[in-house]
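User: Before I run my own analysis I want an independent prediction to cross-check against. Here's the chain; please return only the structure tokens and, at the end, one sentence I can use as a sanity check.
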Amino acid sequence: MQLLFDLNEVSYEYPNGMKALEDINIRIYRGERVVILGPNGAGKTTLLKILDALVPPSSGRVKAFDMILDERSVKRDIYSFRRKVGFVFQDPDVMLFSPTVRDDIAFGLLHLGISDEEVKERVERVLDLFGIDKIKDKHPYNLSGGEKRKAAIAAVLSIDPDVLLFDEPTADLDPKSRSELIGIINQLNAEGKTIIIATHDVNAVPDLADRVYVLNKRIIGEGTPREIFSDVTLLKEANLEVPEIFKLFEVLKCFGYNCEELPLSIDEAIEDLTRTVETEGGHIHLHIHEHTHDEIKEFRNKYEHH
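Assistant: Structure tokens:
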């Protein structure tokens, strides 16, 4: 796979001397879905801004698309870079400031020097892709949270970048909008986009990540979602939880449920339950045994920091 981002010993320090990031080393390859997972204040947004060349690191080296990102290269090749990387901010209101949704989607294209005819074609294409043609003439102020998020992603996607950066994409969304957004992100990845997501939403990670970096100003862990959520010590250090479905099946095991590998998502839970029912003669058997109370106590102690 082609290496797109290579960060070596990257640190960032605010003007007041407070450190936001320390000695970050990460590598991201074309076509991956990578989640930067960490609690509030871990430096996730700052890291995305560095990946997007919005802020330079205080020290260390950032290489993107075989180019060292420094002040000189960014100034020289900024338009080329902006065509390759798109950033969807956590607050869509930051990105939606034109009189209509259609104008917002066209804004970035017009500033990249694209012809009016092609701008129109691209705007219509992403409006149709996200199913937001009906709101194209609305003022962004009058949209729901889910509609705003779709409009913001559409504005970024209209530029057709190779890489999409998402900052807390599932934050403040109702369940339906959240599910739709996860589906959109995965569809974009299936179509070839490299996806990098910063989040603390542990329940979304299994549906959105091939690999996970755990960030708490430093990279303190890296692996698949299953590897990360199986490491209780790491999660405690990062002040993070496991997905709720993972906890539920851990409790079921205390009551005798036979589960070789705890599911991380609803889809995995359905597969596991279906397999169990089929092998147990159409039933699921739960019971209290001599170790149940001790196992429940151990379970509670494991996650007591939450």
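Sanity check: The chain has two domains: 3-238, 244-302.
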